[in-house]
Specification:
globular; 9-stranded mixed beta sheet; 575 residues; mainly beta; Immunoglobulin-like; 5 domains; single chain; 3 helices; 6% helix
């Protein structure tokens, strides 16, 4: 169903692969989003929506059609009393109305012919749209000979994930930082990323709620309360202090392991309350030295340590740095293990990241590693003499993570990426109001079609980008046999999907089987409809192969605008 969710989807479908991220807790208008990309989507969408200064909602006029049904607990099937159900006109979001369900969970609206979005909410449940999956849901269509009077609205109950963090003696660990990760396929492939954080109380307890159903992982970052991190070269530590107190807790995951690939998954169903206790074991703290030339300023550029964590990174936060001698510093309080280390290069700059197994007494070499590069980009948009408002560019590396983000300089109009590690990047573009794709990159070495950019180590380069905007909307219907297929996952698959992830579009078919794929970039595509395909790795070519042969091909010419209808319905394919 096309709605304000398309603003989020346009940006997310183009940028979400830029780094591991986790799906938001579903919400009708404002999902919780925790990774950069999701935050970017909220930022851009919010600026777009706020700029419209939506006036107070107007009630939907009463009409001859009835939208009615029962809102039930999605886990138990029991009716939910006193839940709030809101209806909005899809074509005019200012027209809305709300009712509170009766003791038997019933709700009812009287409307004219049209297409309407339903939202359900109640304390203890996840606020959701009708038949919602990810940020998509099914709109109710009246005046089309469809049964809209016996709807079953399944509202998912919120889950609770709680537990204790205990030290080596079984005592509670206070003020430990808890990381809650969740697996999802929002970007078309399985990814695990941070959903939210929490903190233990004085009893070592934590709680994360409300949570939708899914597969979760939990991490803990903490320091022993008794830890004393002395400097190796110092004789100032009183002899009465036991050197065994120079200890730390490694980053630990549920399952009491220290590497994310060994973490125990926690399957969570709606309405569950699960306990996940984690036990910490101290290890000797590392002592790492590094040298930084004195630049005559107050403060120094220090190394940055990160640990690989699922499909992202967690920054090592619990360490101390002390000056040992002029230009020589020691880092203490870090556990031995595998880290990604970035050393200082110049003021405000870091060298390229390097993966290192750290052991005590190791010296971090400032001279090692390549200097990062700088990319300055100018942008031209086909058919648009100026830059779109709010346009942002992102560099995505080979691992699907974001390596840089830039906005246009207010004076020069240029987009500048500083501190870029060498490598090959996909250049992505998005604005709050429209999707864009990079179709050509020009540089001093010539013009390259496509959207990949090679950044040499330590180089400064200037490139020009040509963008194409998505101004077309593919309108169509999904069917199962001769009947409308409601609730199907609709996927717009570009040619060479592996190299063009930002061109994918998705939607969920409405009650009459209709769907709308918004902001489509000119090019050749195949439209497929999959029944209950939300847990598929739907962007992987090997997975798509089973469905593409049942799809419908379509070509969107350059400068296409407005609606482009599919010539015939798309047949629903079972997962």
């Amino acid at each position: 169903m096309a709605s304000t969710r398309h603003c989020r989807d346009v940006i997310l479908s183009r940028l979400q692969a830029a780094e591991g991220y986790i799906a938001p807790v579903s919400s009708f208008t404002s999902p919780r989003m925790t990774s950069f990309l999701v935050s970017l989507a909220v930022l851009l969408c919010s600026s777009s929506l706020l700029s419209q200064s939506r006036p107070e909602a107007r009630h939907i006029p009463s009409g001859p059609y009835r939208i009615a049904g029962t809102i039930v607990n999605a886990k138990t099937g029991d009716p939910i009393a006193r839940a709030r159900v809101t209806i909005e006109d899809v074509k005019n979001r200012r027209k809305s109305e709300s009712v509170v369900t009766s003791d038997n969970g019933r709700f009812e609206f009287h409307v004219n012919a049209g297409k309407f979005a339903l939202q359900g909410s109640k304390r203890g449940y996840i606020t959701s749209g009708y038949e919602q999956h990810d940020q998509y849901w099914t709109a109710i269509v009246t005046g089309a000979g469809l049964d809209t009077e016996n709807l079953v609205f399944r509202l998912p109950p919120a889950a609770v994930l709680a537990g204790k963090v205990l030290d080596e003696t079984g005592e509670p660990v206070r003020n430990a930082r808890i990381g809650i990760y969740r697996e999802d396929r929002f970007s078309g492939v399985s990814r695990i990323g941070m959903l939210r954080t929490a903190q233990t109380d004085d009893q070592g307890q934590y709680e994360a709620t409300p949570l939708p159903a899914g597969t979760y992982f939990v991490s803990v970052t903490a320091q022993p309360w008794y830890a004393v991190h002395h400097v190796s070269a110092s004789d100032d530590l009183p002899s009465m202090v036991d050197r065994s107190l120079d200890a730390t807790y490694p980053l630990t995951y549920y399952g009491d392991v220290t590497e994310s690939e060994d973490a125990t998954p926690i399957p969570v169903r709606g309405g569950d309350r699960l306990e996940a206790d984690i036990h910490l074991s101290p290890v000797p703290a590392l002592h790492l030295t590094f040298q930084v030339p004195d630049d005559g300023r107050n403060g120094i550029n220090t190394p940055v340590l990160e640990k690989p964590a699922f499909d992202g990174m967690e920054r090592a936060e619990s360490y101390d740095i002390e000056r040992v001698s002029p230009g020589v510093y020691e880092m203490t309080g870090v556990a031995a293990g595998r880290y990604v280390v970035r050393m200082p290069d110049s003021p405000g700059q870091l060298k390229e990241p390097a993966e290192v197994d750290l052991t005590s007494g190791q010296e971090l070499e400032v001279s090692g590693g390549n200097s990062t590069g700088k990319v300055t980009a100018t942008v031209q948009v086909a058919g648009d003499p100026g830059l779109p408002a709010g346009l942002q560019l992102v560099l995505r590396n080979a691992k699907g993570r974001m390596a840089g983000r830039a906005e246009a300089d207010a004076t020069t109009g240029e987009f500048v990426f500083n501190d870029v590690p060498s490598g090959r990047y996909v250049v992505l573009a998005a604005s709050p109001n429209k999707a864009y794709s990079v179709i050509r990159i020009g540089s001093a070495d010539g013009v390259v079609s496509g959207h990949t950019l090679d950044v040499p180590a330590g180089a400064s380069q200037t490139v020009s980008l040509s963008l194409a905007g998505g101004s077309a909307a593919i309108e169509g219907f999904a069917k199962r046999g001769n009947k409308p297929a409601a609730g199907a996952m609709i996927v717009l698959v570009p040619t060479d999907p592996e190299a063009n992830q930002e061109l994918f579009r998705r939607d969920q078919s409405d009650l009459d089987g209709s769907f709308s794929l918004q902001d489509v970039i000119p090019g050749a595509y195949t439209v497929i409809a999959i029944h209950d395909g939300w847990d598929l790795d739907w962007a992987k070519p090997a997975v798509l192969a089973a469905y593409l042969k049942y799809g419908q091909t379509i070509v969107i010419p350059s400068q296409s605008r407005g609606s482009v209808p599919l010539p015939k319905p798309v047949e629903l394919v079972e997962k």
